[in-house]
Amino acid sequence: MRSLIDILDLDTGEIDALVKTALDIISHPDTYADVCRRKKLATLFFEPSTRTRMSFEAAMYELGGHVISMTDGASSSASKGESVADTAKIVSCYADIIAMRHPKEGAALVAAKNATVPVVNAGDGGHCHPTQTLADLLTIWRGFGRFSNLTVGLCGDLKFGRTVHSLIGALSRYQGIKFILISPEELRLPGYVRGDVLDKCGIPYTETKSLEDALPELDILYMTRVQRERFFNEEDYVRLKDSYVLTPEKLAGAKGDMAVLHPLPRVNEISVSVDRDPRAKYFEQAANGKYMRMALIMMLLGLTV
Amino acid sequence: MNVDSIRNGIVIDHITSGRGMRLFELLGLGGETAPVAIMLGVASRKMGKKDIIKIDADISVDVDVIGFVDPGATVNVIKDGKLIEKKTIGKPERLTNVIKCKNPRCITSCEQELDHVFRLTERGEYRCVYCDTKASPN
Question: Which of A7, A31, A104, B111 could form an S-S bond across to A130 if both were Cys, CB 3.0 to 4.6 Å?
């Protein structure tokens, strides 16, 4: 039995296989309409989520499966003090696969160790969010046809941004990747990601506070939201939340084929007027997430067409 | 300064000067399980200064704790006044319930029954297996 806790649980061959399946699902959706017949996905979201939860649920429905949900941690057994370990054991009795989001880092690993069905980490605090990375990767593939030889700018909250950490881990396994890390001093990429991933893999990277300076070099700009829920101190959040705002004027300095990605939801870090620019790929990215989750559910349940 | 030899027990020698008390605390030697002598800042030809812990009883100690605090320390097992085993520990691959994760966002901060487990990274640091937070030295 296999779970997905960290994007690095998947090797590059498995990523390629998931991309291939997702592309085939996009081309031939009817072929996959009954793959998960009589299978149940449990979505356990102890933290608010719209797109990730709905994406998982849509993915399972489009595979012909069913969904059972715990949508609000406050109304669940967790509010009565049940541990993640016990919740995972219990839900394993009802579902064939679990997708779980939890505010605490490492919660998905605890669930996977105790569940008797596959667990997919749908976000554990500021730690990992591997299925968002799968959405990012499919968007990159559909835009560039490769994962190698790309200069990727990561902008905003690189400290608590779990999607950033996962994407760096995933792309660091390919040749010719270069990162430009754009953030205020307080939200720099954590040392363990710089050391254990970038330095270890010999990936070149530069750190800057200026989005404008970095833009001309980039093939991909990955914008992130400064997340209020990651701050213990409201003052710090207010001071940092508007550090970067991408506008059409700023985009004028970027390559014509650059792709703008964002895990969404955005607040105001990307101006709505950017949405009309063909380089804005973040809505496609949300759609791609569903296809990759479909491919992942099939992989973890050992199902093929 | 002299401390009597022991007949049956353990001598943890070559502890980097300054780490003896930390090791004493993490090994839980502060109770009344065994007579213990701690020598701090002892002159050493190789190390300049070192710390030594002598445990005058045939008890087992958690060698992972020793490897974590000071991987260069040596453990000498004494039986009937004779040295029967001398070993260097090195850094253990995993630490279970030796230290606690101090990240307030870690799942271990709210689920009390979970073991606190740290893994040794390629950089020689210990990181929480749940949240990847680096173990703090104190």
Answer: A7
**B106 in contact with A at a CB cutoff of 8 Å?**
yes
- Which secondary structure element, helix H or strand E, spans residue B25, and what is its range? helix B20-26
Answer yes or no: do A125 and B108 touch at CB < 8 A.
Answer: no
Q: Domains in chain A: how many in total?
A: 2
Question: Which domains, ranges and CATH numbers included, belong to chain B?
Answer: 9-88 (3.30.70.140), 94-128 (no CATH)
Complex ipTM value = 0.85
A168 shares its domain with A203: yes
Tell me the CATH number at A123: 3.40.50.1370
HEC sequence for A108-129: HHHHHHHCCCCEEEEEECCCCC
Range of the domain at A86: 7-129+286-301
**Residue with tokens 């705002």, as numbered in its chain:** A245
Residue of chain A minimizing CA distance to B110: A104
Residue of chain B with shortest Cα separation from A165? B132
Which of the residues A127, A129, A162, A293 is marked catalytic? Answer: A129
Cis-peptide into A48, omega within 30 deg:
no
Interface test with B, best of A7, A47, A104 (most B CBs within 10 A): A104
What are the pLDDT tens digits along chain A (305 aa)? 899 999 999 999 999 999 999 999 999 999 999 999 999 999 999 988 888 999 999 999 999 999 999 866 565 666 667 899 999 999 999 999 999 999 999 999 999 999 999 999 999 988 889 999 999 999 999 999 999 999 999 999 998 888 998 899 999 999 999 999 999 988 899 887 888 889 989 999 999 999 999 999 999 999 998 877 666 677 777 777 777 999 999 999 999 999 999 999 898 899 999 999 999 999 999 999 999 999 999 999 999 99
